[in-house]
Model the fold of this input.
Amino acid sequence: MSRHRRPVRSALAAVLILTLPPLATPAVAAAPAVAEQRDADRWNVDLALVDADDVNVRHTPTGLRLADPRPAATGRSAVAAGLLLAVPRTLARPANRVRAQVDARVPRGAAVEIQVRGWRASGWTEWREAAPQVRFDAPVTSVQARVVLTGAPSAQVRSVWLTADRVDVAAVAAATPGLTYRVYATRIGLVGQTTANGHTIRTRDHFVALPSRRGLAPRNAGDYTVRVCTTTGSRCEYAPVWDVGPWNTRDDYWNLSSVRENWKDLPRGLPQAQAAHQSGYNGGRDQFGRTVLNPAGVDLADGTFWDGLRLTTNAWVDVAYLWTGSGPRGVVGDGPLNIRSGAGTGYPIRGLAARYAHVPVQCWVTGQTVTGPYGTTSRWNRLAAGQYVSHAYLSAVYGGAVPRC
Done:
């Protein structure tokens, strides 16, 4: 993402620090007293820079606010929502803590959240609330912020200041494989409508929706990608998360209860909609008070549903939340890309990898020579057992060296 930066405002008047509780980070023990680092990065988020990758917000002389106060016409959310995505900030030195100071007018029925994510070798962390602070489990070299407005139209954000520094924390446990849960999938449809990240849905589109913005990728990016497979494992698709839903918008059910936004008493991996539909949890209603009519924990765009998985009706699927894993990742530069069972185009197709998806790369083998948008090569990358894609269709590989299989 490229933007021209406007001059940073030099003063912050009447700063109000939002009093949200600090978030615990998965796999990190309770932190001891920390030592402040003198050398800290501090910057102002440019709220006036509203452009194509922002959704339903506008900047006025009194601050950032919703452009359209009405809930989305699609009915996926019962309240209006808007999002401003700031330019990533390259830090002068790695940091593992970010603090937010916010000057905002937030009337009853509205909410303002300042969320940040950090870049490390294996990719972006998940989005986390930064007011008053968030700690990452490892130092990051860049920080990106976004401002999320929901509810009443009169909420106004006047300024946001962020500070990134490094503090001493307890030892971090070893990295774990990406989390995988079996959840119920429904089809999105809604061609011509707009997703939560501003993408206009096309016929046979390839993306998914999850019921939390914590795993929402910017438009035309796959920073947060899932692998969704049929329960038999016969078909899979790697697809970016471009929308929020179904049912809820604050149900990151893949996270630990200490981190999960809502419904902290539910088991990890159990969507609130599933608990409501099957067990009458929360009176059988979602966060907006609507009666939950199915147990959906993921929505699939038509292309993912019909072409990637070859489903004909809503079904249970196995979803891997790939940003929770570790190791090298490849970026699909052109797609949907066929996933083959071996290193050549003569092997059966096992599924698809959507354009922009960030796919795990376990290792590589030599196979059929293929010409694609990124050159001519005989290298094939193995994503999982029996899943190969040609290297000629990956625009980049990051997160470490890829070994030979």
